[in-house]
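Weekly puzzle thread! Below is a chain. First person to post its structure in token form gets bragging rights.
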Amino acid sequence: MISSIDNPDNVSSAEIVIGIPSYNEAKTIAIPTLQASLGLTQYFPDKSSVIINVDNNSEDGTREVFLNTKTEVPKIYVSTPEDVKGKGFNIHNLLKVSAELRAKAIIMVDADLTSITPEWVESFLEPIFDGYDFVVPIYSRHKYDGTITNNIAYPLLRTLYGLRVRQPIAGDFGISGKLARSFLVEQTWTDEVDHFGIDVWMTTIAICRNFKVCQTFLGTSKAHRTKDPVGLGRMFSQVIGTCFQLMSAFEYLWKDIFESSPSVIYGFGLGQKENFPEVIVHSETLYDSFIEGFDSYSDIWRSVLDSENWKAVEKLKKLKSDNFYYESKLWARIVFDFAIAFNIQQIERDKLLQALIPLYHSRTLSFVNTTSEMETRETEAIEERLNRNFEAEKGYLIKHWDLASKNNDIPIELLKLHVND
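Winning reply:
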């Protein structure tokens, strides 16, 4: 949905497009714009290229900062209408303009990046020109940056579709022209995809539609504007809602997958320095959200969760914030119960996702308490244990999904009795 385009250099075609989606990013957008230009001129001087800012009609001067950043590579500014906001709308505009320019390769990078280097451009584009369609980054992040990725998006996608893609909602991707055109005609594009669901949607579609997917080391940590996990409610609902909704579309695939395997990885991961922006986690707020969830959502929790899982959640109420912990096996089953309810039970989806947020906060708190004295690299062992528990519980998911599908007209109380027999 495009309302305006500024194309001062009258670019009509480009082999390479670097897209920077934005909304009110005047303070930072010059950094990825300049680094993108340096990467293109240094590593791909023989290919025609353009940098596109796909914007949500920002009011802080993002457009002016972008167009006034001095670059050797030409630039195009594209905006949605004033009343249309959402990252997915920006990405749709990027894909549309890239298709019109007949681009062979597209890179997406976040507008708030401060760690991007010219080498990122090479790392994303090399696999595309080697024949890959979707390139996902591998970079170090602060152990509490990316809690949605670490605690649910990555383990869920890895378990469902069998490919280990560590940063499925990274925000930074490489996309072939062929895949970009496929995204534009994909029938699973929903309202959530118009917003924060876009990243996990692209990753899922690339895997499930059998495009060639790989990962690439970027050589530097990701530094951008970080967010407290407590403030991620809207993003959480849109990302996880997209994950859950796609489970129905690709049920025919994930039910036959029982183990995961690594994707092809470009580059190498040695020698990365951990230089992360600080991520402040308010543990007491996470704990309060979970405890208050009993007042707000206990009816939904009791209805959605298997009876044994509900009993286990009730017991957690007795724990104090500083020693709050539970096994990741329980968290896996909670996520699976909610995925089943989202797709099969007659519960309003928005309320269901809101009810999952306090439980997500409880999982985050459990992870924080477990890893508080660990370095970021040490926490990957904890993450891997979580992923393996998700995969180990896939039989639970399939059994309960099939039973709920078969008996979706039976009251949930009777269904639970049948499951536990």
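Puzzle host: Confirmed. Bonus trivia for everyone else. Residues 410-421 have pLDDT under 50 and may be disordered.
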